[in-house]
Amino acid sequence: MIELFKQPNLDWMGKAKYFYALSGILLLAGWTSIFFGRGIKYGIDFSGGTNVDVRFANAPDLDKLRGGLAAQGLGNTELQPIRDISSTSNNEVLIFVEGKGQDEDAIQSSRAKVLDALNATYGVATSGKPDFNLATPASLAAVLTEKDPLFLSVNAGDRYQQLAKKLLDYRNSDANGILTNFDDLFKVPGVTPAVVNALKSSFSLGPFAIRGTAFVGPKVGAELRLQAVQVTLYALAGMLLYIAFRFQGGASAGQLFFSQSGILGFTLRLFDKMIYGLAAVIAVFHDVLITLGFFSLFRFEISLTVIAAFLTLVGYSMNDTIVIFDRIRENNRLLRREAFADVVNKSINQTLSRTILTSGLTFLTVLVLFLMGGQVLRAFSFALVVGIVVGTYSSFGIAAPIVVAWNRWRGHGVVVSTGPAAGKNRGSENVSARLAPAGRR
């Protein structure tokens, strides 16, 4: 493997207090925003409501749009402009009508209210003609069949259905969902001046088009929030059991049974066995909590895709931690006479090149996805950008120091004295080596 560093010798455990301080600052900032600031912003998947994706012919006046929605009794809506990376203008807006405290019938009617507000705000209803940008294949085919601009007598219905599909495909793809000039339809194969004139006489071109709607009831949203928490906890519990079994630390229960008894002794022996798993799970909790805090600070929505990103973050952070723990276990067998903290430092230094290579390349990938992936993937990629950075440093800055602190408190893997009493302590050194973590039996 490519080695970025030649035998690094950094004292990671000596700098653990700085990692703890950094994590404390990030957690404090993020969760202050959650509890005392604007809180966590849930997407439609969890909060319930109606999401209407509207594209305008020109960049809309958000204040005018917000006023029109308020006039329809939708003053609690949120407007989120969506920037197209291929354009410098914001012609698309996501209108979210929250459904909290409403029944499902009221939420379903929110879409109709949004349409009424848009029509009233932009005067679409005054033209007396249906909007071509809101036309469906069936309605367009019906108009063409009635007008019969191609003078078809046989199979007119089928021919006009095919033509209607071509026209709407052009509107949705080439015109990006909204047509601003009927003459642009001449680019569609099979369209004649008579067809365009028939469309001009039957339709108007409104200043906006509804590109999509989504609806989630409040009960469904609450169930999805609960399921998201449960899925994350189940994943962490499974990882805890696996790591506790795979990386058993401390002395065996038989070795410590007579020196410690009772509930406290049993608890300490259990923690000795599970300290690696507990440290890894604490580090993953740390990663998720910090990432949630960043979502609150930067006002990104928590949606189902973001939960998928969190689970990806959990697996990625856990994998990085396991790599370091596995090297610690190997070095424990080879470096029996060294203090456990020194073994951990060497293990982190030995895996440092691998950590930077894998984490760095993954970070660059998700950063490009965040910058150029569009609005739909923005929150998903943001979770990965933050999570990869936090998850990488938590593996050696949080998880490993927890294991070292526990073993130091328990008296495992202590350093042998070098003073006059060193000879008397040789026996205790061997005992400490045998009681050190990661299976030296």
Describe the fold and architecture.
- With 441 residues, the chain is of the alpha+beta class.
- It has 3 domains: 13-42 and 217-435, Up-down Bundle (Multidrug efflux transporter AcrB transmembrane fold), CATH 1.20.1640; 49-122, Alpha-Beta Plaits, CATH 3.30.70; 132-209, no CATH class.
- It contains 15 helices and 6 strands.
- It has helices spanning 16-36, 44-47, 62-71, 104-122, 137-147, 156-174, 193-202, 218-246, 253-256, 262-298, 304-334, 340-350, 352-372, 378-410, 426-435, and strands spanning 41-42, 49-56, 78-82, 92-98, 208-216, 301-302.
- The strands form 2 sheets. It has a 4-stranded antiparallel β-sheet. A two-stranded parallel sheet has the order 1-6.
- Helix 8 (218-246) runs parallel beside helix 11 (304-334).
- Mean pLDDT is 81; it is low at 250-259 and 415-441.
Features:
441 residues, alpha+beta, Multidrug efflux transporter AcrB transmembrane fold, Alpha-Beta Plaits, 3 domains, four-stranded antiparallel beta sheet, two-stranded parallel sheet, 6 strands, disordered C terminus
The H/E string reads HEHEHEEHHHHEHHHEHHHHH
Our estimate of the beta-strand percent is 5-15%
Q: Could you give the order of strands across the largest sheet?
A: 3-4-2-5
Morphology: elongated
User: How would you state the average pLDDT, rounded?
Assistant: 81
- Say which CATH homologous superfamily of the largest domain is assigned: Multidrug efflux transporter AcrB transmembrane domain
Question: What is the total domain count?
Answer: 3
- Report the strand count: 6
Low-pLDDT stretches: 250-259, 415-441
CATH class of the largest domain: Mainly Alpha
Please outline the major beta sheet: 4 strands, antiparallel
Number of helical elements: 15
Give the helix level as a range of percent.
55-70%
User: How does the helix and strand content classify structurally?
Assistant: alpha+beta
